[in-house]
Amino acid sequence: MLAAARAAFAERGYDGASIRAIATAAGVDPALVHHYFGTKDALFLAAVEAPADPDEFLPRVLAAPPEALGAAVVGMVLHVWDGPARPGILALVRSAVNHEWSARLLREFVLAKIIRRVIGSLDMPVAEREARGALVASQLVGLVMTRYVLRLEPLASARPDDVVAAIAPTVQRYLTGDVALPGRPD
Amino acid sequence: MLAAARAAFAERGYDGASIRAIATAAGVDPALVHHYFGTKDALFLAAVEAPADPDEFLPRVLAAPPEALGAAVVGMVLHVWDGPARPGILALVRSAVNHEWSARLLREFVLAKIIRRVIGSLDMPVAEREARGALVASQLVGLVMTRYVLRLEPLASARPDDVVAAIAPTVQRYLTGDVALPGRPD
Q: N or C, which end of chain B has less CB nearby within 10 Å?
């Protein structure tokens, strides 16, 4: 079931994959998938082997007022990476860099479970949401890579609050500020 | 010689590794290293297996006035990644994510050969240089990861000019703007 779920999420994305299709591919009844995993959400987290559940830390971020969302998001990223989930997330990132299907899963995870929900709390058209979400991801993924993977100083050993102070204005601008938004070419 | 050079650069960094010590570790005469590679710079590029030589594209970036440096740097990164060197750079990034010594080599390469030279063109104290350089790296590495590795839309297929317009203000702020600079804790 998990293998079928991984293949479906990587191929069709979080929205496109249905529990029914995953059950069919695994040769089981959809009711069995529901019995084991409950929701599609829980099945997705299991398939990605997510080392941390966004439901645990996202509500606090989403409670921030729009003008403080940048700092809340950066603070959350550091909090999760500086916690016990780090080895698990690092394994996920390594896998994503090495395997195309794994990159797709991580992209879906970051997009569907984190960025989209943060951006979803702001009022704007879908195309703008996508563009702002990708820009936010570009800064957050880069922060994680330089601080935790490449360990570039002084970012690697700087205090979380100092990192938030430096990076949050960028994320805030991407979320709600004045940005020339990139789009897909026509 | 290359194995000894890789070990030395990974262990002691670009500045700390000397041709003399590398030659000793490889059991050869320093003159032989000079004969084969010329400068320490060329030896480093060979050791990293650099798919592109910064000397080819950096001069154009450094010719930009300080207030246009952000756009010049982002444009250069996209130009190099959208060119024939992409598979080589991707291999370097994959290796860096998987091996600690490889991460150190990539960090040294990005730091010593690119960021430091870009920042070196600006007049500021060393600690500020380091901090601004790491922040610039956090945005550029993230841009590369989201656009080329995770292929997050619309960043993945946006026109280079549109990407520059969105990202350059961030890099410009990190280079010369008003930033709460992170430092190593005392």
A: C
